[in-house]
Amino acid sequence: MSERTAVYLKDRKAGELVDAMLVDGVTRDEVEKAESVWKPFLDQQLKRMQAEGIPKNRWPQHRHWDWRQKQESTETYLAYRMFGVECSSQMQGLMLVLTAGKNARIDSERGKPMVYVHFLAAAPWNLSSIVDEPRYTLVGSVLLAAVIHLSLEEEFQGRIGLHSLPQSDAWYRDACGMTDLGPDPSVQNLRYFEMTPKQAAEFLEER
Amino acid sequence: MESTAQARKTMTLNLTETEMKALEELSTTKDISKTAVLRQALRLYQMVEVRIARGEKLFFEHDASKQKAELMML
Lengths: 207, 74
What we know:
heterodimer; A: Aminopeptidase; 5 helices; globular; B: extended
């Protein structure tokens, strides 16, 4: 059963905060509804990018993610939770996290449990990499705040970890203040990031 | 942002002294309460059970030698 909490996103065009809902426990119907809008929009933008000769290394690196499949393959498990941010009756971002079996690697927290972010993405119309004027900002921040809150509830003191796609490395490192532990050969050499309890508290305080 | 915690139910748990000692050690090492340790254990156990029911096997792999050992689930 999903739970809803009031949050805010920023309407970029209007330049103001707008009401949104954080959905904890996104259902199959909600994922299907999101994908049915996200995918055609993304395909259309990719066609445009191809026609304009934009090199593929500037295309969104998560363009192949299939949220329907991710939801279906994890909905049975207690350890997985899917979050979403809804605004204007549309899903503006989705996140899949794992709440068991992952331990921190950073020296000060080594071996202690944390929440692992498997996947996090904003809706394609919110990505500055593919549209000139994203509709809403703060989607990633709201989802990251949600996983920190979850980590606190689980008694993990805010510890979280994730592997980042190269296009998001700078955001996790510079905007979110996570520690970059370098490329991980066991996960396609993606850079591995962690947030300590102190960094998590700072992240929440700043927002 | 407000808490997203779901309503929880309480139960009494009977453990032997050895089991309680193991639980307390995990609680200390992981720096979480005994309830949180058991919640972690349940999530992992449920995941293993679902995957084994699908015909999968659970292996541990040594980080350096890459030697694999199957974990026997009875």
